[in-house]
Specification:
Elements (H helix, E strand, L loop, with lengths): L1 H14 L8 E2 L4 E2 L7 H14 L2 H9 L14 H17 L6 H10 L3
Antiparallel strand pairs: 1-2
């Protein structure tokens, strides 16, 4: 319960551009600072998500869907690029964070890099 409270407070502060107060809960030995993600934690979480992406399966589903005629494409990289593009978009929608102004601004900002 305390962890959810910490996370809610921390998310509230971040979405409202406020600096969280230094809070410590003795019952859980948890501080706000511990909720911030380190590079090592980011890589671990990213690798977990990457393992769940079934890009080849989604690409084959699109190829066999009947939405395209493979015979109309030359034997080059154009059709695989088109299918990969759509498959990536489909997969991206599955990982979209819950809607909030803060996350929307963060996503829009990252698209500039």
């Amino acid at each position: 319960m305390a962890i959810e409270l910490f996370r809610s407070y921390y998310a509230y502060c971040r979405s409202n551009n406020k600096k969280p107060l230094a809070i410590k809960d003795n019952s859980t030995k948890l501080t706000i600072k511990q909720l911030e993600m380190t590079k090592k934690q980011f890589i671990k979480n990213l690798n977990t998500l990457i393992q769940t992406v079934e890009l080849e399966k989604e690409s084959m589903r699109l190829f066999e869907s009947g939405g395209i005629d493979p015979n109309k494409f030359d034997n080059d990289m154009l059709l695989p690029k088109i299918i990969l593009y759509v498959a990536l978009q489909n997969e991206a929608e599955q990982y979209r964070p819950l809607s909030s102004t803060y996350y929307s601004r963060t996503i829009a900002n990252l698209k500039h890099f």
